[in-house]
Amino acid sequence: MKKILILLLIGVLSGLYLCAQEDRGEIFQQIDLSQHFKNVDGCFVLYDLKQESYQMYQPDQCHQRFSPCSTFKIPNSLIALETGVADDVQFKLPWDSIRTPAQPWMFDREPFKYWLQDHTLQSAIKYSVVWYYQEIARRVGADRMNQYLQQINYGNNDASSAIDRFWLCGSLKISAKEQVDFLKKFYTHELSGFSAANMKAVKDIILYESVDNHRLYGKTGGGNCMPRKVIGWYVGWVETDDNTYIFAMNMLADDFSAFDQNRRIEVTRKVLKELNIIN
């Protein structure tokens, strides 16, 4: 009898938990990915476009807002093209060595060693060139930037700090869940106010790899945004032959030695393999 009552109680609590998620409009399956996030506090959100369902590892962290850092280069690119600040993805800006001087540590570290040259929108997103996107944001201007942030409903929509730093540990904050919801609208061309051509152009420049069984699109990000903690991001989607899966992950660590660009991507690959999405 006691065992039956315990099972009934577990069922009731599970039902209450599911109802709470339904009230937030966020029904999801929790998954254990702890083996992939050793030595860091990590979260992972995966959205199955065909099934219209979410899976999450560490849902509390997935709903917590952080600075988007360089993942904001995705909407920044869209806004640059839609406003005409950038004519196309080959729009070139010269490197200003006075405004953005070279630092000694940059010469032998990736991707920073590639920052010390002229860039196009396409090359700047590939090498995550901060100065290029800062200049893009200055040319867009605060009024238009605020208008587009409200339009796409990107996290807290707050660009009130400096126009060329609000996404770099500034006022703009977004959660992993909100990253996925933004990317879902972007992928399905449901972002209001953006042309299909500009959305396709930005998709094309964030293609990371294309192999026989999948195509991986994404953008990393990272910053020293919290006391005694740094954040690392990887957001994007993977297309298989019969479906698309949109994802966002972040890691919190004591310092950048705990992760680099490749670790974030490799963790994502391992998760996608574990979930039988890629081989």
Entry summary:
The chain has helices at 2-23, 59-62, 73-83, 121-126, 130-140, 142-152, 176-187, 196-205, 261-274; strands at residues 28-30, 41-48, 53-57, 92-93, 119-120, 207-210, 215-226, 229-239, 244-253. The protein has 279 residues and is α+β, with helices and mostly antiparallel strands.
What CATH architecture label applies? 3-Layer(aba) Sandwich
CATH topology: the name is: Beta-lactamase
Task: Return Rg in Å.
Answer: 20 Å
Low-confidence stretches: 1-23
Query: What is the helix content?
Result: 25-40%
CATH superfamily: DD-peptidase/beta-lactamase superfamily
The major beta sheet can be summarized as: 7 strands, mixed
Secondary-structure element pattern, one letter each: HEEEHHEEHHHHHEEEEH
Mean pLDDT: 91
Helix count equals: 9
User: Structural class, from secondary structure content?
Assistant: alpha+beta
What general form does the structure show? Answer: globular
Beta-strand content? 15-25%
- Kindly state the number of beta strands: 9
Description:
The chain is of the alpha+beta class. It has a single domain, classed as DD-peptidase/beta-lactamase superfamily (Beta-lactamase), CATH 3.40.710. It is built from 9 helices and 9 strands. A 7-stranded mixed β-sheet has the order 1-3-2-9-8-7-6, with helices on both faces. A two-stranded antiparallel ribbon has the order 4-5. Helix 3 (73-83) packs across helix 5. The chain is globular. Mean pLDDT is 91; it is low at 1-23.
